[in-house]
User: Which sequence fits this backbone?
């Protein structure tokens, strides 16, 4: 489920079906090192809402 | 850490819906503000029935007041050719208008949106400890017209899934 806002309403967007060259590109995509490193060096703290 | 996140159960998302809707400032543009509020409201409704998991972010140093932003995540799947791939979907990512587009030195020299997205990435890895997931995906609000937002996701490593310029993904 994802949302988009159209004509004054929030509607759900169907999940994509990726085919052909796009599919090949997505399957062979590289993991972005910078993003991953940035996540790994942070210690995120999560509390539960009371 | 100079910031922390709060997770909401379905019960707290339901009981705090009104206060959470009023906890952040929306865009100065009334039409955009209406759209943002509607999207947050929908995310809260979905969080109330466990269809998405909602998190808010705060500054623990007290320099920035109130809720800095929200991120909502759910499990889904995409079809790549004939193969179903499990994904984590960023249902919503919204930053308090007061704090948008600014880099905060005391918050790891980061923008709030960057920290919210990295938090989503960290949650992705938490989930992967227990079940298989392949991609973090999202549908940018406003689509390709929202160039600023799309450019931000691109700098974080996201790519468009197709030339329709709708869904964006990052392989993790």
Assistant:
């Amino acid at each position: 489920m994802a949302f988009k806002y159209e004509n004054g309403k929030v509607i759900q967007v169907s999940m994509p079906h990726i085919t052909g060259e796009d599919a090949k590109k997505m399957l062979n995509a590289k993991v972005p090192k910078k993003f991953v490193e940035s996540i790994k060096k942070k210690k995120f703290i999560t509390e539960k809402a009371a | 850490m100079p910031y922390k996140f709060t997770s909401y159960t379905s019960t707290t998302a339901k009981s705090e819906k009104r206060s959470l809707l009023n906890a952040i400032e929306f865009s100065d543009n009334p039409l955009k503000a209406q759209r943002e509020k509607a999207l947050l409201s929908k995310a809260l409704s979905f969080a109330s029935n466990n269809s998405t998991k909602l998190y808010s972010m705060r500054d623990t140093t007290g320099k920035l007041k109130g809720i800095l932003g929200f991120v909502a995540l759910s499990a889904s799947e995409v079809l790549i050719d004939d193969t179903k791939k499990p994904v984590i979907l960023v249902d919503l990512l919204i930053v308090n208008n007061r704090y948008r587009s600014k880099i905060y030195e005391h918050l790891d020299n980061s923008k709030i949106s960057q920290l919210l997205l990295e938090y989503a990435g960290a949650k992705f890895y938490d989930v992967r400890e227990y079940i298989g997931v392949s991609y973090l995906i999202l549908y940018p609000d406003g689509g390709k017209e929202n160039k600023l937002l799309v450019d931000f996701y691109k700098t974080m490593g996201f790519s468009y899934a197709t030339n329709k310029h709708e869904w964006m993904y990052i392989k993790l």
Q: What stands out?
A: The longest helix of chain B spans residues 30-48. Chain B touches chain A through 54 residues (CB under 8 Å).
